[in-house]
Amino acid sequence: MFKKMTLVVALFAAPTWAYATETDVTQEIAKVTADFPQCLQSFAEQAKSQGVTDATLRTHLNNLKVVNRVIELDRQQPEFTSTFAGYFNQRVTDWRVQKGREYLAEHRELLNKLAQQYGVPAQYLLAFWGMETNFGGYKGKMPVLDSLATLACDHRRSAFFTKELITALQLSQKYDFPAEKMQGSWAGAMGHTQFMPSAYASYAVDADGDGKADLWNSTEDALASAANFLQHLGWQRNQRWGREVQLPQGFDFNSIGQIKSLSEWQKLGVKEANGSVLPVADMTATLYLPAGHQGPAFIGYDNFEVIKRWNRSDFYAISVGHLADRIVGAGKLAKAPPEQQRRSREQIKQLQQKLNELGFDAGKPDGILGSNSRQSLRAFQASKGLIPDGFPDDDTFAALGIAGS
After folding, report:
1. Could you tell me which residue ranges the Peptidoglycan binding-like domain spans (predicted)?
2. Of 23, 89, 165, 221, which is the most exposed, with the fewest CB atoms less than 10 Å away?
């Protein structure tokens, strides 16, 4: 498990948001720029000790440069949190559904082969592909080696990005990738499936047999690599991701976040979204209400957790799962995500501070409503006779004495 979770971080390198002013960022860019030559000199010795040749270093190191925009993006702090409707509706679109169906037909032979080999059905591979790069339409245009070098020479996560840069040079050396070809996200994620270098090195597959695993130019390699990665993350063959469900009147919302068997959820009155009885199967599931009790409800099975090892966001996992369902013919959600007010991070931080003051431990106020904060929020809501769904609605802000708008 430790190996799996380590590699998930390596795949996406999701930023740990920093609260930094424009002046702070300018000063940090100046420091990285000033330290860059010495940093690269030290890096070269470390890279050579891990098998990067002098020829590779000569080819790349002298051309590396600081990318100011990378530091800016790494320090970026979004002012507002995203609502589920805002996130979901931008990602599970009719266009993506239609393109997914077209690619399902176009690559059917390959996808069937991958499903048999790795146990990951075609629709999920297509959903990940669509979510990550619009089916290869946008793979990122940042120079990966420059981005990684910039972050490796920055103090915040130097050790992590130093390892990623070394791995990226090893990939260039192994596959003869020129620097100009290695383009991707600002944090160094690459190709159709947006793999970080460490994930690329561990899970990329040469499926087309041309002698190299090329995640930029080979759709076959990219889809096979995604299937290989998901299999190693623990994908359960012949199981769904989860499903939209319907909750009964008087439902006990204290069960949110708990792992229960399907039979236990049945006893609580949970049904499929169309009102039919949940399937009978020896499986466990967790209930999710991404928009609170007024929005759609979902149960996630083991594969939902696998999706979250790819990207730790509940919103992302629900979007991947539902997009996969739509690609193979399912309809839209039975209960559409409601339009809700976006909360600023400062508002969420105030909410966390107030919960702590009232004895409901929400952890360090950081403006991010994680699982610990939601659990504390549910306890507070229950104490005030509110629906304990862990969602920061207007009634909850009012009960906390915080302005909600």
Report:
1. 345-400
2. 23
In this structure, is the dihedral angle defined by the CA atoms of residues 270, 272, 273 and 276, taken in order, positive or negative? negative
pLDDT tens readout for residues 205-217: 999 999 999 999 9
| CB neighbour list of residue 334: distance below 8 Å, 6 or more residues apart | 244, 246, 273, 274, 296
Q: Which amino acid appears at position 88 of this protein?
A: F
Domains of the chain, start order: 2-78+139-233 (1.10.8.350), 345-400 (no CATH)
CB neighbour class for 380 (10 Å; exposed up to 12, middle 13-18, buried from 19)? buried
Could you tell me where the beta strands, DSSP code E, fall in 125-223?
Answer: 142-143, 183-184
Q: Quick one: DSSP state of residue 344?
A: B
Write the CA distances from 269 to 170, 274, 298, integer angstroms: 54, 13, 14
Averaged confidence pLDDT in the chain: 92
Task: Record the tokens describing residue 250, joined without a space.
Answer: 């008087």
147: tokens are 């981005």
Residue 76: predicted pLDDT: 80
pLDDT digits 0-9 by tens, 271-282: 999 999 999 899
Can you tell me the distance from the alpha carbon of 302 to that of 240, in angstroms, rounded to the nearest whole number?
A: 8
Q: What is the 3-state secondary structure (H, E, C) of 350-398?
A: HHHHHHHHCCCCCCCCCCCCCHHHHHHHHHHHHHCCCCCCCCCCHHHHH
- CA angle centred on 165, ends 216 and 231, rounded to 5°: 55
Helix, strand, coil percentages in the chain from 3-state DSSP, rounded to 5: 55, 5, 40
Angle, CA 11 vertex, CA 80 and CA 182 arms, to 5°: 100
pLDDT tens digits for 200-245?
Answer: 999 999 999 999 999 999 999 999 999 999 999 999 999 999 999 9
Which pLDDT does position 11 carry in this prediction? Answer: 45
